[in-house]
Amino acid sequence: MVNKTLNPEPEVNKDGKYGVNIPRSRDTSRADSVFSGTLRMLDDLGWVCLTEVSLSNNRRADILALSRSGDFLIVEVKSSLADFASDGKWPEYLDWCDHFAFAVDGDFPQEKIPEDAGLIIADGFGGAFLRETAPVKLAAARRKAMTLKFARLAAYRLYRNANAPVA
Fold first, then answer.
1. Tens digit of pLDDT for each residue in 8-31?
2. d(CA 47, CA 8)
3. In this structure, are residues 127 and 104 in contact, taking their beta carbons and an 8 Å threshold?
4. Which residues contact 83 (CB under 8 A, 6 or more apart)?
């Protein structure tokens, strides 16, 4: 992830009318740090990962990881309690993975993470599973679809990056 400018909002000027759009940016350094540490940890554990993966149910997984044995893990990165509290859609990821976990930093109030979800604590240097969940095996047809999706997306991103125009 990189720092992004949010959609500009119109400003109200002295006359009470909308004026010039002023871009506002948000600090994503905390989420970037959790992402980085989580990806490093998963790599160390033998998982291969893709970020920002669209699922067939119109949700987007922050991290979709594939193990050596073919299990899928979806990780949702939460940068703050407000980010977690505003996201009630996480149960919709469960049908698309064998394992599910939240990744947060060390300052996050861990008791807020549901007991039936995994918990990863991460910073910019690495991470650790504090709680893993028992796997819920995907149906064979869904596993095949997810494996094909993962392979095609990985190949597409590799091709796109290898053939990016030189500026």
1. 444 444 444 444 444 445 567 888
2. 38
3. no
4. 31
